[in-house]
Amino acid sequence: MNKLLMTSIFTAAALFTVAGCSSNQAVRTTDGRTIVTDGKPKVDDDTGLVSYKNAETGKTEQINRDQVKNMSELDN
């Protein structure tokens, strides 16, 4: 029983450590909007799309790269 408890605690600690490594980003668009993402957006050079997880909705979304003015890391 003690071994199971220690394994569970170690696993939970590892998950919290990994989750803490991804920082939110602010994506500012050419039309003046600011989108807060959960983690770093990924740019697909073939399609020109930026994929990100919306921090407000939790949904994965995409935007055309030419609609992105800049991306910056937020202090969490």
Overview of this protein structure:
The structure is a single chain. By secondary structure, the protein is α+β, with helices and mostly antiparallel strands. It is built from 1 helix and 6 strands. It has one helix at about 1-20; strands at about 25-30, 35, 40-45, 50-55, 60-65, 70-75. A 3-stranded antiparallel sheet has the order 2-1-6, with no helix packed on it. Strand 1 (about 25-30) and strand 2 form a beta hairpin. The longest helix has 20 residues, at about 1-20. It is elongated, with a radius of gyration of 17 Å. Mean pLDDT is about 80; it is low at about 15-20.
Q: What descriptors fit this protein?
A:
about 80 residues; alpha+beta; 3-stranded antiparallel β-sheet; 1 helix; 6 strands; about 25% helix; elongated
Strand tally, please?
A: 6
Can you give the helix content as a percent range? 25-40%
Q: How much strand?
A: 35-45%
Total number of helices: 1
Question: What is the H/E string?
Answer: HEEEEEE
Report the radius of gyration as a whole number of Å.
17 Å
- Strand order within the widest sheet? 2-1-6
Shape field: elongated
Q: Quick check: average pLDDT?
A: 81
Spans where pLDDT lies below 50 across 5 or more residues: 15-20
Structural class of the secondary structure composition? alpha+beta
